[in-house]
Amino acid sequence: MSRWNAGRDRRRSGARGLTLGPVVLAAFFLCLSPLHTWADGPDPDTGTEVNAPAAGKQVEETGSSPAATAEKPSDQYGDVTGQEAEGVGTRIADPIEPWNRAMYHVNDKLYFWLLKPTTKAYKYAVPEGFRGLIGNFYQNIKAPVRIVNNFLQGKPHYAALELARFLVNSTVGVGGLRECATQCFGITGREADFGQTLGKYGVGTGFYIVWPLLGPSSPRDTVGWAADLALTPTFYVSSQWFSPETVGLYALDKVNYTSFHLGDYEALKAAAIDPYVAMRDAYVQYRKKAVEQ
Amino acid sequence: MKKWLAGMVLALLATLPLIAFAGVPLDTVKTNVDSVLEVLRDPKLQGEAGKKVKAQRIEAAAEKLFDFVELSKRTLGVNWNKFTPEQRKEFVRLFESILKNAYVDRITAYTDEQVSFTKEIPLSGDTVEVRSVVIGKNNQVPIEYRVIKESNQWKVYDVVIEGVSLIENYRSQFREILGNNPPETLLDTLRKKVGAG
To answer: pLDDT band at A228, cuts 50/70/90?
Structure first.
Protein backbone atom coordinates (compact mmCIF):
# COMPACT_ATOMS: atom_id res chain seq x y z
CA MET A 1 0.00 0.00 0.00
CA SER A 2 1.23 2.97 -1.13
CA ARG A 3 0.84 5.03 1.73
CA TRP A 4 3.06 3.10 3.79
CA ASN A 5 5.76 3.86 1.64
CA ALA A 6 4.69 6.79 0.17
CA GLY A 7 6.62 9.21 1.52
CA ARG A 8 8.65 11.54 -0.05
CA ASP A 9 8.04 14.91 -0.86
CA ARG A 10 7.45 15.85 -4.13
CA ARG A 11 6.88 19.31 -3.84
CA ARG A 12 9.75 20.19 -5.82
CA SER A 13 10.18 19.00 -9.16
CA GLY A 14 12.58 16.43 -8.46
CA ALA A 15 12.22 12.91 -7.81
CA ARG A 16 9.50 11.57 -6.08
CA GLY A 17 9.07 8.87 -3.79
CA LEU A 18 6.72 6.43 -4.28
CA THR A 19 3.43 7.25 -3.95
CA LEU A 20 2.06 5.08 -6.18
CA GLY A 21 -1.24 4.59 -5.10
CA PRO A 22 -2.17 8.00 -5.18
CA VAL A 23 -0.17 8.51 -8.14
CA VAL A 24 -2.08 6.27 -10.16
CA LEU A 25 -5.19 7.47 -9.25
CA ALA A 26 -4.49 10.73 -9.40
CA ALA A 27 -3.45 10.18 -12.64
CA PHE A 28 -6.58 9.49 -13.56
CA PHE A 29 -8.44 11.70 -11.78
CA LEU A 30 -6.45 13.97 -13.49
CA CYS A 31 -6.31 16.29 -11.27
CA LEU A 32 -5.35 16.93 -8.24
CA SER A 33 -4.17 14.93 -5.84
CA PRO A 34 -2.15 15.97 -3.18
CA LEU A 35 -0.13 13.12 -3.60
CA HIS A 36 2.85 14.31 -2.41
CA THR A 37 3.48 16.51 0.20
CA TRP A 38 6.01 17.07 2.50
CA ALA A 39 6.82 14.23 4.39
CA ASP A 40 9.19 12.16 2.75
CA GLY A 41 10.28 9.20 4.29
CA PRO A 42 13.05 7.03 3.65
CA ASP A 43 10.82 4.75 2.09
CA PRO A 44 11.62 1.48 1.03
CA ASP A 45 10.50 2.18 -2.24
CA THR A 46 12.25 5.06 -2.54
CA GLY A 47 15.09 3.48 -3.35
CA THR A 48 14.77 2.20 -6.62
CA GLU A 49 13.34 2.24 -9.81
CA VAL A 50 12.07 -0.53 -11.44
CA ASN A 51 12.78 -0.93 -14.87
CA ALA A 52 11.53 -3.99 -15.52
CA PRO A 53 11.07 -5.43 -18.65
CA ALA A 54 11.61 -8.41 -16.68
CA ALA A 55 10.10 -11.63 -17.00
CA GLY A 56 7.07 -12.00 -15.07
CA LYS A 57 4.03 -13.61 -16.02
CA GLN A 58 2.64 -11.07 -18.13
CA VAL A 59 1.83 -11.61 -21.59
CA GLU A 60 2.72 -10.10 -24.76
CA GLU A 61 2.09 -6.75 -25.92
CA THR A 62 4.08 -5.97 -28.85
CA GLY A 63 3.12 -3.92 -31.68
CA SER A 64 2.70 -6.56 -34.17
CA SER A 65 0.19 -9.18 -34.17
CA PRO A 66 -1.18 -11.21 -36.88
CA ALA A 67 -4.53 -10.01 -35.91
CA ALA A 68 -3.53 -6.48 -36.44
CA THR A 69 -4.31 -6.38 -40.01
CA ALA A 70 -7.31 -5.62 -41.99
CA GLU A 71 -10.38 -3.72 -41.07
CA LYS A 72 -11.53 -0.47 -42.42
CA PRO A 73 -9.41 2.25 -41.04
CA SER A 74 -12.35 4.54 -40.80
CA ASP A 75 -14.08 2.39 -38.27
CA GLN A 76 -13.05 3.55 -34.86
CA TYR A 77 -13.79 0.13 -33.46
CA GLY A 78 -11.49 -1.54 -35.97
CA ASP A 79 -8.35 -3.46 -35.17
CA VAL A 80 -5.40 -1.74 -33.66
CA THR A 81 -2.07 -1.53 -35.37
CA GLY A 82 1.22 0.24 -34.89
CA GLN A 83 1.26 2.86 -32.24
CA GLU A 84 -1.99 1.92 -30.66
CA ALA A 85 -1.02 -1.69 -30.31
CA GLU A 86 2.39 -1.01 -28.91
CA GLY A 87 2.94 -1.73 -25.34
CA VAL A 88 5.14 0.42 -23.39
CA GLY A 89 7.04 -2.25 -21.71
CA THR A 90 7.40 -1.47 -18.11
CA ARG A 91 7.25 -4.68 -16.21
CA ILE A 92 8.74 -6.31 -13.24
CA ALA A 93 9.16 -9.96 -12.46
CA ASP A 94 7.01 -11.19 -9.64
CA PRO A 95 8.33 -14.62 -8.68
CA ILE A 96 7.08 -14.40 -5.14
CA GLU A 97 3.60 -13.26 -6.01
CA PRO A 98 1.83 -15.41 -3.39
CA TRP A 99 3.88 -13.79 -0.62
CA ASN A 100 3.42 -10.38 -2.16
CA ARG A 101 -0.30 -10.72 -2.47
CA ALA A 102 -0.49 -11.88 1.15
CA MET A 103 1.55 -8.88 2.27
CA TYR A 104 -0.57 -6.62 0.14
CA HIS A 105 -3.58 -7.80 2.12
CA VAL A 106 -1.77 -7.38 5.41
CA ASN A 107 -0.90 -3.81 4.48
CA ASP A 108 -4.42 -3.19 3.30
CA LYS A 109 -5.78 -4.22 6.70
CA LEU A 110 -3.11 -2.24 8.49
CA TYR A 111 -4.20 0.80 6.59
CA PHE A 112 -7.91 0.43 7.25
CA TRP A 113 -7.70 -0.87 10.78
CA LEU A 114 -4.75 1.02 12.15
CA LEU A 115 -3.27 3.80 10.07
CA LYS A 116 -6.49 5.34 8.86
CA PRO A 117 -8.29 5.56 12.21
CA THR A 118 -5.13 6.84 13.88
CA THR A 119 -4.64 9.41 11.17
CA LYS A 120 -8.24 10.55 11.37
CA ALA A 121 -7.94 11.15 15.09
CA TYR A 122 -4.65 12.93 14.57
CA LYS A 123 -6.05 15.06 11.80
CA TYR A 124 -8.97 16.01 13.97
CA ALA A 125 -6.74 16.94 16.88
CA VAL A 126 -3.95 18.73 15.06
CA PRO A 127 -4.67 21.78 12.91
CA GLU A 128 -3.55 21.74 9.33
CA GLY A 129 -1.03 24.51 9.75
CA PHE A 130 0.70 22.63 12.49
CA ARG A 131 0.73 19.42 10.50
CA GLY A 132 2.34 21.42 7.75
CA LEU A 133 5.15 22.43 10.08
CA ILE A 134 5.72 18.84 11.07
CA GLY A 135 5.79 17.83 7.44
CA ASN A 136 8.41 20.51 6.81
CA PHE A 137 10.44 19.27 9.73
CA TYR A 138 10.58 15.73 8.40
CA GLN A 139 11.33 16.92 4.93
CA ASN A 140 14.18 19.03 6.20
CA ILE A 141 15.69 16.38 8.44
CA LYS A 142 16.03 14.10 5.45
CA ALA A 143 18.21 16.60 3.63
CA PRO A 144 21.33 14.40 4.02
CA VAL A 145 19.64 11.77 1.89
CA ARG A 146 19.07 14.25 -0.92
CA ILE A 147 22.46 15.90 -0.59
CA VAL A 148 24.42 12.65 -0.68
CA ASN A 149 22.38 11.05 -3.44
CA ASN A 150 22.36 14.10 -5.68
CA PHE A 151 26.11 14.14 -5.28
CA LEU A 152 26.44 10.43 -6.02
CA GLN A 153 24.27 10.87 -9.08
CA GLY A 154 26.71 13.39 -10.46
CA LYS A 155 24.57 16.40 -9.70
CA PRO A 156 26.73 18.45 -7.35
CA HIS A 157 24.74 21.52 -8.27
CA TYR A 158 21.61 20.05 -6.74
CA ALA A 159 23.55 18.67 -3.81
CA ALA A 160 24.70 22.22 -3.10
CA LEU A 161 21.17 23.56 -3.44
CA GLU A 162 19.87 20.95 -1.05
CA LEU A 163 22.64 21.82 1.38
CA ALA A 164 21.73 25.49 1.12
CA ARG A 165 18.09 24.63 1.66
CA PHE A 166 18.95 22.59 4.69
CA LEU A 167 21.04 25.38 6.20
CA VAL A 168 18.42 28.05 5.59
CA ASN A 169 15.50 25.96 6.81
CA SER A 170 17.33 24.78 9.88
CA THR A 171 18.19 28.33 10.92
CA VAL A 172 15.81 30.91 9.50
CA GLY A 173 13.16 28.21 9.21
CA VAL A 174 13.52 27.38 12.88
CA GLY A 175 14.81 23.85 12.85
CA GLY A 176 13.14 23.04 9.57
CA LEU A 177 9.61 23.87 10.67
CA ARG A 178 9.26 26.38 7.91
CA GLU A 179 10.22 25.88 4.29
CA CYS A 180 11.91 29.23 4.15
CA ALA A 181 14.51 28.36 1.56
CA THR A 182 11.86 27.91 -1.07
CA GLN A 183 9.40 30.48 0.15
CA CYS A 184 11.81 33.27 1.04
CA PHE A 185 14.65 32.66 -1.34
CA GLY A 186 13.25 30.54 -4.10
CA ILE A 187 15.74 27.75 -3.57
CA THR A 188 14.35 24.53 -4.91
CA GLY A 189 16.27 21.32 -4.78
CA ARG A 190 15.84 17.90 -6.24
CA GLU A 191 14.60 14.75 -4.65
CA ALA A 192 17.07 11.92 -4.72
CA ASP A 193 17.30 8.56 -3.02
CA PHE A 194 19.75 5.71 -2.96
CA GLY A 195 17.66 3.24 -4.89
CA GLN A 196 17.55 5.81 -7.67
CA THR A 197 21.30 6.27 -7.39
CA LEU A 198 21.83 2.53 -7.77
CA GLY A 199 19.52 2.53 -10.77
CA LYS A 200 21.51 5.30 -12.38
CA TYR A 201 24.64 3.21 -11.94
CA GLY A 202 22.95 0.43 -13.82
CA VAL A 203 21.70 -1.76 -11.03
CA GLY A 204 18.53 -3.47 -12.19
CA THR A 205 15.41 -3.63 -10.17
CA GLY A 206 15.32 -7.32 -9.74
CA PHE A 207 11.87 -8.38 -8.82
CA TYR A 208 8.87 -7.13 -6.95
CA ILE A 209 8.63 -7.46 -3.18
CA VAL A 210 5.90 -6.20 -0.92
CA TRP A 211 7.12 -5.66 2.62
CA PRO A 212 4.72 -5.59 5.48
CA LEU A 213 4.33 -1.99 6.65
CA LEU A 214 6.72 -0.60 4.10
CA GLY A 215 4.86 -1.61 1.00
CA PRO A 216 6.00 -2.08 -2.62
CA SER A 217 9.71 -2.50 -3.14
CA SER A 218 12.39 -4.51 -4.89
CA PRO A 219 15.76 -5.80 -3.80
CA ARG A 220 17.42 -2.67 -5.07
CA ASP A 221 14.88 -0.38 -3.47
CA THR A 222 15.16 -2.24 -0.23
CA VAL A 223 18.90 -1.64 -0.14
CA GLY A 224 18.22 1.96 -1.10
CA TRP A 225 15.73 2.32 1.68
CA ALA A 226 18.17 0.99 4.26
CA ALA A 227 20.94 3.28 3.02
CA ASP A 228 18.65 6.29 3.12
CA LEU A 229 17.54 5.37 6.59
CA ALA A 230 21.16 5.38 7.65
CA LEU A 231 21.42 8.94 6.31
CA THR A 232 18.39 10.10 8.23
CA PRO A 233 19.31 11.82 11.49
CA THR A 234 16.12 10.82 13.29
CA PHE A 235 17.27 7.24 13.00
CA TYR A 236 20.06 7.97 15.48
CA VAL A 237 18.04 9.36 18.33
CA SER A 238 18.43 6.06 20.05
CA SER A 239 21.21 3.53 20.06
CA GLN A 240 18.77 0.74 19.42
CA TRP A 241 17.06 -0.22 16.22
CA PHE A 242 13.67 -0.36 17.78
CA SER A 243 13.16 2.01 20.59
CA PRO A 244 10.16 4.09 21.53
CA GLU A 245 11.94 7.12 20.09
CA THR A 246 12.77 5.74 16.67
CA VAL A 247 9.46 4.01 16.23
CA GLY A 248 7.57 7.04 17.51
CA LEU A 249 9.36 9.39 15.15
CA TYR A 250 8.76 7.10 12.24
CA ALA A 251 5.12 6.67 13.11
CA LEU A 252 4.57 10.41 13.44
CA ASP A 253 6.10 10.93 10.04
CA LYS A 254 3.81 8.32 8.56
CA VAL A 255 0.68 9.54 10.24
CA ASN A 256 1.42 13.17 9.51
CA TYR A 257 2.07 12.39 5.87
CA THR A 258 -1.05 10.29 5.62
CA SER A 259 -3.11 13.08 7.11
CA PHE A 260 -2.67 14.92 3.82
CA HIS A 261 -3.46 11.86 1.76
CA LEU A 262 -6.48 10.21 3.24
CA GLY A 263 -8.61 8.93 0.44
CA ASP A 264 -5.86 8.40 -2.08
CA TYR A 265 -5.47 4.73 -1.41
CA GLU A 266 -9.22 4.21 -1.28
CA ALA A 267 -9.55 5.88 -4.64
CA LEU A 268 -6.81 3.73 -6.13
CA LYS A 269 -8.57 0.65 -4.95
CA ALA A 270 -11.93 1.79 -6.17
CA ALA A 271 -10.61 2.53 -9.64
CA ALA A 272 -8.61 -0.67 -10.00
CA ILE A 273 -9.74 -3.92 -11.51
CA ASP A 274 -7.00 -5.76 -9.63
CA PRO A 275 -5.62 -3.39 -6.98
CA TYR A 276 -2.57 -5.56 -6.40
CA VAL A 277 -1.53 -5.40 -10.03
CA ALA A 278 -2.47 -1.72 -10.24
CA MET A 279 -0.18 -0.94 -7.36
CA ARG A 280 2.65 -3.05 -8.67
CA ASP A 281 2.48 -1.37 -12.05
CA ALA A 282 2.30 2.10 -10.57
CA TYR A 283 5.32 1.31 -8.46
CA VAL A 284 7.28 0.08 -11.44
CA GLN A 285 6.39 3.04 -13.62
CA TYR A 286 7.08 5.47 -10.84
CA ARG A 287 10.52 4.15 -10.02
CA LYS A 288 11.42 3.88 -13.66
CA LYS A 289 10.68 7.54 -14.09
CA ALA A 290 12.74 8.39 -11.00
CA VAL A 291 15.79 6.67 -12.44
CA GLU A 292 15.32 8.12 -15.89
CA GLN A 293 15.12 11.68 -14.89
CA MET B 1 4.40 54.88 -42.96
CA LYS B 2 1.56 53.18 -44.73
CA LYS B 3 3.86 50.58 -46.07
CA TRP B 4 5.20 49.95 -42.66
CA LEU B 5 1.75 49.57 -41.26
CA ALA B 6 0.72 47.23 -44.00
CA GLY B 7 3.82 45.20 -43.34
CA MET B 8 2.99 44.96 -39.69
CA VAL B 9 -0.52 43.86 -40.37
CA LEU B 10 0.66 41.28 -42.81
CA ALA B 11 3.24 39.95 -40.40
CA LEU B 12 0.64 39.77 -37.72
CA LEU B 13 -1.78 37.93 -39.90
CA ALA B 14 0.91 35.55 -40.96
CA THR B 15 1.76 34.60 -37.41
CA LEU B 16 -1.78 34.28 -36.18
CA PRO B 17 -2.60 30.93 -37.67
CA LEU B 18 0.68 29.60 -36.39
CA ILE B 19 -0.02 30.66 -32.89
CA ALA B 20 -3.50 29.33 -33.06
CA PHE B 21 -2.36 26.03 -34.42
CA ALA B 22 0.38 25.58 -31.88
CA GLY B 23 -2.01 26.10 -29.05
CA VAL B 24 -4.97 24.00 -30.04
CA PRO B 25 -4.26 20.78 -28.14
CA LEU B 26 -3.23 22.69 -25.05
CA ASP B 27 -6.22 24.98 -25.24
CA THR B 28 -8.61 22.14 -25.74
CA VAL B 29 -7.39 20.30 -22.67
CA LYS B 30 -7.18 23.48 -20.67
CA THR B 31 -10.70 24.53 -21.55
CA ASN B 32 -12.14 21.19 -20.54
CA VAL B 33 -10.14 20.84 -17.36
CA ASP B 34 -11.01 24.40 -16.43
CA SER B 35 -14.66 23.70 -16.94
CA VAL B 36 -14.39 20.79 -14.53
CA LEU B 37 -12.70 22.99 -11.98
CA GLU B 38 -15.34 25.64 -12.47
CA VAL B 39 -18.08 23.18 -11.68
CA LEU B 40 -16.16 22.11 -8.61
CA ARG B 41 -15.88 25.63 -7.34
CA ASP B 42 -19.36 26.77 -8.20
CA PRO B 43 -20.74 28.10 -4.93
CA LYS B 44 -24.27 27.30 -6.07
CA LEU B 45 -23.44 23.64 -6.22
CA GLN B 46 -22.18 23.17 -2.70
CA GLY B 47 -23.72 20.70 -0.34
CA GLU B 48 -25.57 17.47 -0.89
CA ALA B 49 -28.10 18.92 -3.30
CA GLY B 50 -25.42 20.18 -5.62
CA LYS B 51 -23.52 16.94 -5.57
CA LYS B 52 -25.56 15.22 -8.19
CA VAL B 53 -25.61 18.15 -10.54
CA LYS B 54 -21.90 18.44 -10.07
CA ALA B 55 -21.34 14.81 -10.89
CA GLN B 56 -23.43 15.11 -14.05
CA ARG B 57 -21.64 18.19 -15.26
CA ILE B 58 -18.26 16.68 -14.59
CA GLU B 59 -19.26 13.59 -16.46
CA ALA B 60 -20.32 15.69 -19.39
CA ALA B 61 -17.00 17.52 -19.34
CA ALA B 62 -15.15 14.21 -19.13
CA GLU B 63 -16.96 13.06 -22.23
CA LYS B 64 -15.70 16.06 -24.13
CA LEU B 65 -12.22 15.68 -22.78
CA PHE B 66 -11.59 11.97 -23.32
CA ASP B 67 -11.69 9.74 -26.34
CA PHE B 68 -12.83 6.58 -24.65
CA VAL B 69 -12.54 4.41 -27.73
CA GLU B 70 -8.95 5.42 -28.33
CA LEU B 71 -8.25 5.04 -24.64
CA SER B 72 -9.72 1.54 -24.65
CA LYS B 73 -7.76 0.48 -27.72
CA ARG B 74 -4.48 1.66 -26.33
CA THR B 75 -5.20 0.09 -22.99
CA LEU B 76 -5.87 -3.31 -24.48
CA GLY B 77 -3.13 -3.03 -27.08
CA VAL B 78 -3.02 -6.07 -29.34
CA ASN B 79 -5.50 -7.80 -27.09
CA TRP B 80 -8.10 -5.48 -28.58
CA ASN B 81 -7.89 -7.49 -31.76
CA LYS B 82 -9.01 -10.62 -29.96
CA PHE B 83 -12.33 -9.01 -29.14
CA THR B 84 -15.24 -9.28 -31.54
CA PRO B 85 -16.81 -5.98 -32.66
CA GLU B 86 -19.63 -6.42 -30.15
CA GLN B 87 -17.22 -7.21 -27.37
CA ARG B 88 -15.21 -4.12 -28.26
CA LYS B 89 -18.25 -1.92 -27.98
CA GLU B 90 -19.20 -3.40 -24.68
CA PHE B 91 -15.68 -3.09 -23.37
CA VAL B 92 -15.56 0.60 -24.25
CA ARG B 93 -18.89 1.19 -22.57
CA LEU B 94 -17.87 -0.62 -19.37
CA PHE B 95 -14.42 0.85 -19.18
CA GLU B 96 -15.79 4.32 -19.76
CA SER B 97 -18.22 3.86 -16.95
CA ILE B 98 -15.51 2.68 -14.57
CA LEU B 99 -13.24 5.57 -15.43
CA LYS B 100 -15.99 8.14 -15.12
CA ASN B 101 -17.12 6.85 -11.75
CA ALA B 102 -13.63 6.89 -10.41
CA TYR B 103 -13.01 10.29 -11.86
CA VAL B 104 -16.14 11.84 -10.45
CA ASP B 105 -15.67 10.23 -7.05
CA ARG B 106 -12.23 11.52 -6.77
CA ILE B 107 -12.42 14.90 -8.30
CA THR B 108 -15.38 16.13 -6.33
CA ALA B 109 -13.14 16.10 -3.29
CA TYR B 110 -10.92 18.82 -4.71
CA THR B 111 -11.47 22.47 -4.89
CA ASP B 112 -8.46 24.55 -4.07
CA GLU B 113 -5.89 23.26 -6.47
CA GLN B 114 -4.55 25.47 -9.18
CA VAL B 115 -3.78 23.92 -12.50
CA SER B 116 -1.29 25.53 -14.77
CA PHE B 117 -0.69 24.36 -18.29
CA THR B 118 2.90 24.70 -19.24
CA LYS B 119 3.58 23.40 -22.70
CA GLU B 120 2.82 20.92 -25.41
CA ILE B 121 5.19 18.48 -27.02
CA PRO B 122 4.44 16.69 -30.28
CA LEU B 123 4.69 12.93 -29.88
CA SER B 124 3.85 11.84 -33.40
CA GLY B 125 1.94 13.04 -36.43
CA ASP B 126 -1.40 13.19 -34.71
CA THR B 127 -0.57 12.96 -31.03
CA VAL B 128 0.62 15.63 -28.66
CA GLU B 129 1.52 15.69 -24.99
CA VAL B 130 0.11 18.60 -23.02
CA ARG B 131 1.94 19.24 -19.78
CA SER B 132 0.42 20.70 -16.70
CA VAL B 133 1.23 21.14 -13.06
CA VAL B 134 -1.29 20.94 -10.29
CA ILE B 135 -0.30 23.29 -7.55
CA GLY B 136 -1.64 22.37 -4.16
CA LYS B 137 -0.91 24.03 -0.90
CA ASN B 138 2.14 21.97 -0.19
CA ASN B 139 2.99 20.28 -3.36
CA GLN B 140 3.18 20.29 -7.10
CA VAL B 141 2.14 17.38 -9.18
CA PRO B 142 3.11 17.17 -12.84
CA ILE B 143 0.34 15.80 -15.00
CA GLU B 144 0.65 15.10 -18.70
CA TYR B 145 -2.32 14.66 -20.98
CA ARG B 146 -1.68 12.76 -24.17
CA VAL B 147 -4.07 13.86 -26.85
CA ILE B 148 -4.88 12.62 -30.31
CA LYS B 149 -6.46 14.45 -33.18
CA GLU B 150 -9.60 12.84 -34.37
CA SER B 151 -11.88 14.41 -36.92
CA ASN B 152 -10.41 17.77 -36.08
CA GLN B 153 -10.86 17.44 -32.37
CA TRP B 154 -8.18 16.90 -29.81
CA LYS B 155 -9.12 14.29 -27.28
CA VAL B 156 -7.27 12.81 -24.35
CA TYR B 157 -6.29 9.15 -24.63
CA ASP B 158 -3.89 8.94 -21.70
CA VAL B 159 -3.11 10.80 -18.52
CA VAL B 160 0.31 10.48 -16.94
CA ILE B 161 0.77 11.58 -13.39
CA GLU B 162 4.21 11.62 -11.91
CA GLY B 163 5.36 9.27 -14.58
CA VAL B 164 2.54 6.79 -14.08
CA SER B 165 0.48 6.31 -17.19
CA LEU B 166 -3.17 5.54 -16.73
CA ILE B 167 -3.51 3.31 -19.76
CA GLU B 168 -0.34 1.44 -18.95
CA ASN B 169 -1.60 0.82 -15.47
CA TYR B 170 -4.87 -0.63 -16.69
CA ARG B 171 -3.11 -2.51 -19.42
CA SER B 172 -1.03 -4.40 -16.89
CA GLN B 173 -4.20 -5.35 -15.05
CA PHE B 174 -6.07 -6.46 -18.17
CA ARG B 175 -3.05 -8.30 -19.51
CA GLU B 176 -2.96 -10.41 -16.42
CA ILE B 177 -6.57 -11.43 -16.91
CA LEU B 178 -6.33 -11.89 -20.68
CA GLY B 179 -3.17 -13.94 -20.38
CA ASN B 180 -5.07 -17.04 -19.44
CA ASN B 181 -8.64 -16.14 -20.16
CA PRO B 182 -10.81 -15.23 -23.13
CA PRO B 183 -12.10 -11.66 -23.55
CA GLU B 184 -15.42 -12.76 -22.10
CA THR B 185 -13.83 -13.26 -18.69
CA LEU B 186 -12.52 -9.72 -18.64
CA LEU B 187 -15.88 -8.37 -19.75
CA ASP B 188 -17.52 -10.30 -16.99
CA THR B 189 -15.16 -8.85 -14.39
CA LEU B 190 -15.90 -5.37 -15.69
CA ARG B 191 -19.64 -5.98 -15.71
CA LYS B 192 -19.50 -6.98 -12.09
CA LYS B 193 -17.46 -3.94 -11.21
CA VAL B 194 -19.82 -1.60 -12.99
CA GLY B 195 -22.82 -3.31 -11.50
CA ALA B 196 -21.42 -3.07 -8.02
CA GLY B 197 -20.32 0.50 -8.44
So the answer is: very high
